[in-house]
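Regression report. Comparing outputs from two consecutive submissions.

Submission 1:
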Amino acid sequence: MTRRVAKLYVTDDCSLCDIALDMLIRSKVMSGVVLTTVDVALDDDLFTTYGDLIPVLAYAGNTMNWPFTMTDIESFIAQSEKRS
């Protein structure tokens, strides 16, 4: 079985990032998915790419920028799994 891994690009003191993380933890579709957070402030390239967009969810080679809802998360994960 393929390991399911998602990344949430965040930074410190980001209330939207906290909300997104809470949503992902509560989402049933994330069951069995290893979720890691990545602080974009620690990497110049990531900050350039995602700094104005965070929080950003990355899964199966796809990304989804904030704002997103629980329904958006479910659709994003399902669509990403179909593409991979």
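Submission 2:
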Amino acid sequence: MAKPTKLVKEVWLEQVAKQMPGIDSYFVTNNLTSSISLQKTVKNVNITGASQGYFKAKKLGMLAGRSLQDNDYKNFSRVIVIDQMVVKKFFETNEDALNQVVTVGNNDCRVIGVYKKH
């Protein structure tokens, strides 16, 4: 399999951010509404696909597990970080959510972390 490469826009944004005084992180997002299911429970949720700087720039604290890492992006890992509102819909505790496989749309993803939503 070919090694994934950065898109031209990503490279450009990275270069611009490095040249701007005071910018220490940046991110790009894509938002949509989709279903998440676990066993027989299905809920519609808002999903944010985000680039690597998202958690740092938004100063989102982790409640359990970890945030996305470089290798998750490079390897196109099927992992997901959820907020505490999603946890309440499917699990009893933040820790119960970790390593569970949920279906997002048609894709199975392993929960690696829970973050505190502002």
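Expected: both submissions complete independently.
Actual: both completed, but the second showed a warning that disappeared on reload.
Relevant detail on submission 2: The longest strand covers residues 29-38.
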